[in-house]
């Protein structure tokens, strides 16, 4: 398919006039988990989709199943993302989900497993490091810096984009990773709220990224979602 360079200000529909060199990546945040609902910090620890999260995964799978078929479905190797991705893959008639460890959530050190409301008191250094504007600051307790998260996330995404030139793929990942991707592409000061089971579409062409749409949860109108989402820019 041939098309001209994308004008991000115009409505874009993949499959209408997409240039053969453009990769469309549909980024999805996993469905709601038990720890999301409880306000508990997951990081790279595991937490299952709760009942609402499972319904969200069904809803997003149904939506994406009605859109143009992706050539592949990728996922973080954490269970909450994989479970969401498996439902999407089935709905989109993709035979498998390819796990990409570099798309997993940020390791947030000694904050992992705590509740957001107790983080500042129990692990003040780690809590401060998480919200620090010093991007190369690693979170105490084995955590990553924001720079480290950005580097691995963007490298993984770029590899996928280059492999699927001119194709559409779905990538299921996490709030922290989505925040990093948004800030790296836009150079904005804030990414706002990253909502569970949201659809976020980016395009890659000629070494450049463009955000086509962000934080779309229109498919969740009958299911519901946590309004607070993931907000790595504001202290709880």
TrEMBL record:
> Entry's CDD domains?
HP_PGM_like (cd07067)
Q: Entry's Pfam families? A: His_Phos_1
Q: Which SUPFAM superfamilies match?
A: Phosphoglycerate mutase-like
Q: Where does substrate bind?
A: 29-36, 80
Highest taxon listed in the record's lineage: Eukaryota
Signal sequence coordinates: none
Instruction: Give the positions the UniProt entry annotates as the active site.
Output: 30 (tele-phosphohistidine intermediate), 105 (proton donor/acceptor)
User: Could you say which protein family the record assigns here?
Assistant: Belongs to the phosphoglycerate mutase family.
Protein name as annotated = Phosphoglycerate mutase
């Amino acid at each position: 398919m041939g098309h001209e360079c994308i004008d991000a200000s115009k409505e874009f529909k993949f499959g209408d006039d997409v240039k053969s060199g453009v990769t469309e990546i549909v980024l999805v945040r996993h469905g709601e988990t038990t720890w999301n609902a409880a306000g508990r910090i997951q990081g790279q620890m595991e937490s299952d989709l709760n009942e609402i999260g499972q319904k969200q995964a069904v809803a997003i799978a149904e939506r994406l199943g009605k859109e143009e078929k992706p050539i592949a479905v990728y996922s973080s190797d954490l269970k909450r993302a994989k479970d969401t991705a498996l439902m999407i893959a089935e709905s989109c008639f993709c035979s498998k989900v390819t796990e990409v460890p570099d798309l997993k959530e940020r390791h947030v050190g000694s904050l992992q497993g705590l509740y957001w409301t107790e983080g500042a008191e129990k692990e003040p250094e780690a809590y401060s490091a998480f919200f620090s504007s010093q991007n190369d600051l690693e979170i105490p307790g084995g955590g990553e810096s924001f720079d480290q998260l950005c580097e691995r996330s963007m490298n993984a995404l770029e590899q996928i984009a280059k492999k699927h030139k001119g194709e559409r793929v779905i990538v299921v990942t996490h709030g922290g990773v989505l925040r990093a991707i948004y800030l790296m592409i836009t150079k904005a000061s804030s990414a706002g709220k990253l909502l569970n089971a949201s659809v976020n579409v980016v395009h890659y062409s000629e070494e450049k990224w463009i955000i086509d749409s962000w934080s779309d949860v229109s498919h969740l109108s009958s299911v519901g979602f946590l309004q607070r989402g993931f907000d790595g820019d504001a202290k709880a």
